[in-house]
Amino acid sequence: MNVTELRGDGVRAHEYRWALPSVLLGDAREGRRVRRSTRDWIVDTGMFLVACGLTFLSLAEMTHEPEPLLAIEQVVGALACAAVWLRRRWPVGLALVTTLLSSYLELVGGACAVAVFTVAVHRPFKISGPITLLGLVTLVPYVMLRPQEDLSPAGGAVLGVAIVLTIFAWGIVIRARRQLVWSLRKQAETAAGDARRSERERIAREMHDVLAHRLSMLSLHAGALEFRPDAPAGEIARAAGAIRTNAHLALQDLREVIGVLRHAQSGTDDLVPDRPQPTLADLPALVEECRQAGMDVRLDLRAADAPEHLGRNLYRIVQEALTNARKHAGGAPVAVTVAGERGKGLSAEVRNPLWARHPLRLPGAGAGLIGLTERAELSGGRLEHGATPEGEFLVRAWLPWPMETTPETTLEDA
Question: What stretches pass through the bilayer (predicted)?
Answer without folding.
Answer: 41-60, 94-120, 127-145, 157-176
